[in-house]
Design brief:
Elements lengths: L6 H34 L7 H7 L4 H12 L3 H19 L4 H7 L5 H12 L3 H7 L9 H8 L10 E3 L7 E3 L28
Helix pairs in contact: 2-3, 4-6, 4-7
Length: about 200
């Protein structure tokens, strides 16, 4: 206890601190519910308003809190989940690009192709053709990490996914290459493929 602080004031601060911590933990639990719902129902028509209604908050509040907790907006997170699933389906090779588009929750092939190209660096048809065997022999947990799409930030070309300055995502014009700590950079030039593939 510091000088000039009465026992009642000190106790009130401790109680307030505990209630603020429990409120923060409660908020994080609600955000996890939203994130888990997006992971489960990524193919369903979801929007921020519907997600916010599910936890009884406004869409703006949900967006701000989600971004503060996870580093990206709910919309960006949902698009990343959809594109991850699309990448897996395209690598499998038994569905057309159009079938994959609708399977992962997009209602427009043009929007799907645009978002896919933004996150992956190549159009879905090129990805399907060139990456069909990209994860053969890889453990699923490793394959998910290696193939996770990385959203590029407007105005900047570096971002750390983990906060570690050594673990920086690097992007290039015309491609979305990433170098993670200890992992080799996988890119079209290294695989011997032409870099001018459309």
């Amino acid at each position: 206890m510091t000088l000039g602080t009465s026992p009642a004031t000190w106790h009130d601060r401790a109680v307030t601190s505990r209630s603020a911590d429990s409120q923060r933990l409660g908020d994080l639990a609600l955000l996890r519910r939203v994130r888990d719902r997006m992971d489960r129902e990524f193919a369903q028509p979801l929007d921020v308003e519907a997600l916010a209604r599910g936890i009884n908050v406004s869409a703006g509040h949900l967006s701000r809190q989600f971004k503060a907790a996870y580093g990206e907006s709910p919309y960006s997170y949902l698009m990343t989940r959809r594109i991850e699933r699309a990448m897996a389906l395209l690598r499998r090779g038994d569905l057309s690009v159009t079938e994959v588009c609708f399977e992962v929750g997009f209602s427009s092939l043009g929007t799907f192709s645009t978002r896919f190209t933004e996150l992956v660096g190549v159009p879905p048809s090129v990805y399907r053709r060139e990456h069909g065997d990209a994860t053969v022999g890889m453990a699923p947990c490793i394959a998910k990490r290696v193939t996770r799409p990385v959203r590029t930030r407007p105005g900047g070309n570096e971002r750390s996914e983990t906060g570690d300055p050594e673990d920086v995502v690097r992007t290039r014009p015309g491609g979305n290459e990433r170098s993670e700590t200890g992992d080799p950079v996988r890119n079209r030039e290294a695989s011997g493929a032409s870099s001018d593939v459309a």
